[in-house]
Amino acid sequence: MICCIYHDRQRVWRDVLREYEWYYEDRPHTAEFLKFDVLVTTYDTLIGDFDVISQIPFRVAVVDEAHRLRNQKGRLLECMREISAKGTMQYGFQSRVLMSGTPLQNDLTVRSLLLPLSFCSRSASQKPFLFFLPGALDFVELH
Asked: Is 130 within 8 Å of 83 (Cβ atoms)?
């Protein structure tokens, strides 16, 4: 799997990352021709570049610190709903993994992201995957 760590405080540098790390030079710059299988980003980058990230139909979204999705009127939850809808439209389903060290205490807002879950016999090799990491990416080790 090819992983792209997509994070920088300045949009201009994220534009450079997209140009060289997302797309092939000789192919159209569309979601069908992405170089990566996994996109690792932060909540702030997701919100800041949602116009670009939302164009990709993610098959799986893994969200760390999912308790941040509790604010029903928050931009973060709105972004996640749109990403979920796009993945569902493209693949007929979207898997979501919500991780949190904070007890959710049966919070229906966060749990609503899990519903409806559809299971389908799609190939595990379909791409792309999306991972959100909170805060700055000081150290990421993928094995």
From this structure: yes
Q: What is the mean pLDDT of the chain?
A: 76
Across 5-15, average pLDDT: 89
Residue 61: strand, helix, or coil = strand
Listed in sequence order, the residues at least 6 apart from 117 whose beta carbon sits closer than 8 Å to its beta carbon are 93, 95, 96
Taking alpha carbons only, the member of 75, 68, 86 closest to residue 130 is 86
Q: What pLDDT score was predicted for residue 138? A: 39
Q: Cβ–Cβ contacts within 10 Å for residue 85, how many?
A: 13
| Nearest alpha-carbon partner for 56 in 78, 36, 75 | 36
3 beta partners: 38
Strands 129-132 and 3-5: unpaired
Query: What distance in Å separates the CA atoms of residue 114 and residue 118, rounded to the nearest whole number?
Result: 10
